[in-house]
């Protein structure tokens, strides 16, 4: 769907939501902590929200979910947390920063990103273990790294690969990045022969610079994205509306358009 049509649909959907009582004209700032992989989708959703409600300013804090959870645990102010895995949202909840229910709003798949000219000649997963391959992955505790480790563990259990394969792959790691978008950027810039990212990270700005290698379902693991509201938000009704919109048909369509797997059928 073209961008202008998508935004129009988002705005129309938002106008169907009931405004918080007495809040029609009061200026509002809503701070949303969101996993780096959500950048494009949430900027679309946030733009539609602000177009429908000009009194609302949405401030996004994009980054690794582990870093965002740590910031919230340390008392950083915010209203909504959208994590790339349940573990980091649970960490924020255990720190007393997430109040009430949380909701899974999207899923994602791992892919192997390769530079467009594929200098290492990588054709299959087996090639990731070839000597000299420059592999970039996310740092430990970043959600995409958790999913990557799970993928490698599953491959190690397959007799066609075995534990030696995963060990050889990890031996090829030349950089561990702070979030998944940094992994994708290194591949796009030709600073790595391969990187493990989410399918949604192959965004329009790098699509002509990279190619992807699918990870078979037997090894892949679906990333699960939960969203929740902080314990001390000054704007609980607006925070609730934002969460509801992410879960709405239009919000789910925006996520699907950005390469995510929506949780709602439409």
Structure description:
This protein is of the alpha/beta class and 266 residues long. The chain has two domains: 3-108 and 224-262, D-Maltodextrin-Binding Protein, domain 2 (3-Layer(aba) Sandwich); 110-214, 3-Layer(aba) Sandwich (D-Maltodextrin-Binding Protein, domain 2). It is built from nine helices and eleven strands. The strands form two sheets. Strands 2-1-3-10-4-11 form a six-stranded mixed sheet, sandwiched between helices. The protein has a five-stranded mixed sheet with strand order 7-6-8-5-9. Helix 1 (3-15) crosses helix 2 and helix 2 packs antiparallel against helix 9 (249-257). It is elongated, with a radius of gyration of 19 Å. Mean pLDDT is 92; it is low at 1-5.
Tags for this model:
6-stranded mixed beta sheet, 37% helix, single chain, alpha/beta, D-Maltodextrin-Binding Protein, domain 2, elongated, 5-stranded mixed beta sheet, disordered N terminus, 266 residues
Topology:
Blueprint: H1 3-15, E1 28-35, H2 39-52, E2 56-63, H3 65-73, E3 80-82, H4 86-94, E4 98-108, E5 110-115, E6 135-138, H5 143-156, H6 163-171, E7 173-177, H7 180-188, E8 194-198, E9 210-214, E10 223-230, H8 236-247, H9 249-257, E11 261-262
Parallel strand pairs: 1-2, 1-3, 6-7, 6-8
Antiparallel strand pairs: 3-10, 4-10, 4-11, 5-8, 5-9
CATH architecture of the largest domain: 3-Layer(aba) Sandwich
Major sheet strand order: 2-1-3-10-4-11
Return residue spans where pLDDT drops below 50 for at least 5 consecutive residues: 1-5
CATH class of the largest domain: Alpha Beta
The level of helicity is 25-40%
For the record, the count of structural domains works out to 2
Question: What's the overall average pLDDT, rounded?
Answer: 92
- Helical stretch count? 9
For CATH, the homologous superfamily of the largest domain is named as: Periplasmic binding protein-like II
- Global shape: elongated
Strand content: 15-25%
- List SSEs in N-to-C order: HEHEHEHEEEHHEHEEEHHE
Give the tally of β-strands: 11
Main sheet?
6 strands, mixed
Task: Give the radius of gyration.
Answer: 19 Å
């Amino acid at each position: 769907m073209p961008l202008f049509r998508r935004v129009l649909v988002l705005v129309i959907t938002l106008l169907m939501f009931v405004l918080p009582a007495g809040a029609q004209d009061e200026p509002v700032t809503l701070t949303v902590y969101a996993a780096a992989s959500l950048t494009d989708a949430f900027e679309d959703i946030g733009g539609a929200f602000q177009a429908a409600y000009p009194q609302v300013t949405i401030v996004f804090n994009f980054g690794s979910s582990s870093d965002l959870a740590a910031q919230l645990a340390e008392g950083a102010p915010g209203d909504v947390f959208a994590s790339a895995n349940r573990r980091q949202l649970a960490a924020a909840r255990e720190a007393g920063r997430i109040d009430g229910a949380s909701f899974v709003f999207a899923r994602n798949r791992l892919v192997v990103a390769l530079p467009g000219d594929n200098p290492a000649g990588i054709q299959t997963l087996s090639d990731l273990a070839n000597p000299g391959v420059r592999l970039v992955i996310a740092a430990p505790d970043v959600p995409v790294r958790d999913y990557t480790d799970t993928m490698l563990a599953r491959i190690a259990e397959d007799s066609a690969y075995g534990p030696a394969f995963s060990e050889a792959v990890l031996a090829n790691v030349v950089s561990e990045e702070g979030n998944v978008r940094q992994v994708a950027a290194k591949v796009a810039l030709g600073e790595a022969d391969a990187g493990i990212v989410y399918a949604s990270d192959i965004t329009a700005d790098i699509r002509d610079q990279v190619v992807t290698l699918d990870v078979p379902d037997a090894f892949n693991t679906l990333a699960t994205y939960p969203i929740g509201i902080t314990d001390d938000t000054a704007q609980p009704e607006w925070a609730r509306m934002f969460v509801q919109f992410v879960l709405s048909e239009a919000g789910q369509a925006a996520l699907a358009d950005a390469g995510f797997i929506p949780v709602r059928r439409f």
